[in-house]
Amino acid sequence: MKKQRPIAVDLFAGAGGMTLGFEQAGFDVLASVEIDPIHCAIHEFNFPFWTVLCKSVEETTGVEIRNKSKIGNSDIDVVFGGPPCQGFSLIGKRSFDDPRNSLVFHFIRLVLELQPKTFVLENVKGMTIGKHKAFIAEILNIFEQNGYKSHSTYQVLNAAEYGVPQNRERLFLIGCRHDQQLSNYPNPITKIAKSNKSFTPNQLPSTPTVWDAIKDLPEVEDYLELYKQDWVFADFGKPSDYAKKLRDFCTTDNNYSYQRRYDSTMLTSSLRTKHSLESVKRFESTPHGKTESISRFYKLDPEGICNTLRAGTASNRGAYTSPRPIHPHTPRCITVREAARLHSYPDWFRFHVTKWHGFRQIGNSVPPLLAKAVASEILKSLDIIPHKPIATQDLGNSSFLKFGMSEAAKCFGVNPHVIAPRIRQPSIKQNHQHQQVSINE
């Protein structure tokens, strides 16, 4: 077996959840493509030593990806990504002919241009339902006709079975060139409490709970500064084993990511939310594991796992904020950092300073630990032994975290209207909720 850092490309990169997961498994994700300049700025901050191409995949070529990154003529080990397929979402309208799903075919085109050994296509569970199975069959058939093979059966993986304290199911299609060995899907490594799945008793450790994920984080209500900025130097509590890993307090044998240089006494991505007194009272009276009747916010059960974190809508589709969970013990919505913990992001990873962008970046992303589980199986099929880099990497300039759209677009040299401007709307639009729940974005 070879000991090296294999090469990966991330299409539809967002803030970088899959990039991070593949890095943790042992890949160098030398190029990422993302259309949203604000997401690109966050990606640039967290992965400043790799290349992000700020443009649509529709206007991107394989040659450009190679030439504008360190890849050059090197053989690429894996291309991965989650093409937006809102037409297949279980939440929104499903339509086989939805034009928003055309991005899938650009994913296929770029894979065929780049000719990686392996590809991973991640998407919504709704893509596996009813007539949409024919769409998956069409995708796999195109790959088969162009030198790639894949599993005859595909899998929907739940992040909660891979160490993530969140119920989040996603489809993964895995394929490889005909000259390569096809990767297996990862077996679960944690079991969900109260799950109906038939795991052998004591076979797997339990999935971390909500409280495992966030109990050591400082209470943001104690810091007035967090009304104006998203960071503060604070006193952290005693972490769980899960939180120790995210705080980088312990080394794990199978984390092959680059060490980041950051101050572990700084609480980040924690801008506070102003709630009305009426909202606070309702949040207090809502039982754990139940949905508050007016806001429709779900109150987290400290001994359970988080419900699926949603992204809300993009600026060109109303900029509505998805319902945010209620903290299990404090009558408020959770912070971006608390959401990041529930998504398996380490504490050094930063998001946009606004809550709207921050939650959207998390809700749109694949939990890193889930991506890592998939990536680790791919490494086995490539017959590569991963290794931990020695060098500690600096994070990018913190100004990237504050960019508005015009600043981000200028930084990357793109049109500021590549994403339609955000139209500010009430966070909750149901009955008269926006009059009863006050949330500052």
Q: Sheet bearing the most strands, described?
A: 8 strands, mixed
Tell me the distance between the termini: 51 Å
Spatial extent as radius of gyration: 21 Å
Poorly predicted runs are: 426-441
N-to-C SSE string, H for helix and E for strand: EEHEHEHEHEHEEEHEHEEHHHHEEHH
Number of helices: 13
Strand content: 5-15%
Structural class comes to: alpha/beta
* Helicity, as a percent range: 25-40%
Output mean pLDDT: 89
Number of strands: 14
Q: Quick one: overall form?
A: globular
Write the layout of secondary structure elements.
Elements: E1 2-3, E2 7-11, H1 17-25, E3 28-34, H2 37-46, E4 51-54, H3 62-67, E5 78-81, H4 103-114, E6 118-124, H5 132-145, E7 148-150, E8 155-158, E9 169-177, H6 210-214, E10 232-233, H7 241-246, E11 259-261, E12 266-267, H8 277-285, H9 336-342, H10 355-363, H11 368-381, E13 384-385, E14 392-394, H12 405-412, H13 433-436
Parallel strand pairs: 1-13, 2-3, 2-5, 3-4, 5-6, 11-14
Antiparallel strand pairs: 6-9, 7-9, 8-9, 10-12
Helix pairs in contact: 1-11, 2-12
